């Protein structure tokens, strides 16, 4: 076993370590005022694409959450999240307004283990321009597409988080 310190001018090892523990957006912004605006919250039949990503039947019901997360009064990200309802039960609007990851780990007693992520640049939709208070400014967004896994291998989440590019940095460590 080898433990390597995170060093360098831009390193904030405490924040980096927290973000790697899948505490979610609220945890990553600890100490700051995080507010959530729920744009849509519904139960719907999964599309073929969402069913494939969650590994559920195409006709299965999933929880769909679209919310805007703000930090210290400034919108940072719009999250589009799909979760299976068969083993992630009881999601309410109060849960959605707070930390869904805390609900999964503390209330449901499940352990979030890993995530597969793809990051890409894009331009915001008209709704995102409004929700992120971009207006007609030429500000791109950075999309993080994610499939989240529990420690037993089940997929608990498929999401796309679309961040204002001026409010988001991605920090990674590659090891050979």
Write a short abstract of this structure:
22% of the residues lie in helices and 37% in strands. The protein is of the alpha+beta class.
Spatial separation of the terminal alpha carbons: 14 Å
The number of strands is 6
Please tell me how large the radius of gyration is. 17 Å
The chain-level mean pLDDT equals 86
Helix content: 10-25%
Describe the main β-sheet briefly: 6 strands, antiparallel
Low-pLDDT regions: 13-21
**What sequence of helices (H) and strands (E) makes up the elements?**
HHEHEEHHEHEE
Strand order of the largest sheet: 1-2-3-6-5-4
Cα shape:
globular
Strand fraction: 35-45%
Task: Give the helix/strand class.
Answer: alpha+beta
* Count of helical regions: 6
Describe this structure in words.
There is one protein chain. Helices cover 22% and strands 37% of the residues. The two termini are 14 Å apart. It has helices at 13-19, 24-28, 48-54, 93-97, 100-107, 126-131, and strands at residues 34-45, 61-71, 74-84, 112-122, 141-150, 155-164. The protein has a six-stranded antiparallel beta sheet. It is built from six helices and six strands; from the N terminus they run ααβαββααβαββ. It has 176 residues and is of the alpha+beta class. A hairpin with a 4-residue loop joins strand 5 (141-150) and strand 6.
């Amino acid at each position: 076993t080898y433990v390597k310190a995170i060093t360098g001018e831009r390193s904030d090892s405490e924040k980096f370590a927290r973000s790697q523990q899948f505490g979610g957006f609220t945890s990553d912004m600890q100490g700051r005022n995080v507010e959530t605006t729920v744009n849509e919250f519904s139960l719907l039949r999964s599309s073929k694409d969402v069913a494939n990503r969650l590994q559920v039947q195409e006709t299965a019901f999933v929880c769909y959450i679209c919310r805007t997360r703000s930090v210290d009064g400034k919108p940072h990200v719009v999250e589009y999240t799909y979760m299976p309802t068969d083993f992630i039960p009881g999601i309410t609007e109060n849960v959605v307004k707070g930390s869904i990851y805390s609900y999964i780990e503390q209330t449901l007693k499940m352990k979030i283990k890993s995530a597969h992520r793809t990051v890409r640049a894009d331009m915001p939709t008209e709704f995102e321009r409004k929700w992120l208070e971009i207006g007609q400014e030429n500000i791109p967004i950075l999309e993080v597409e994610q499939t989240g896994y529990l420690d037993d291998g089940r997929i608990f989440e498929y999401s796309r988080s679309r961040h204002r590019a001026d409010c988001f940095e991605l920090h990674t460590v590659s090891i050979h």
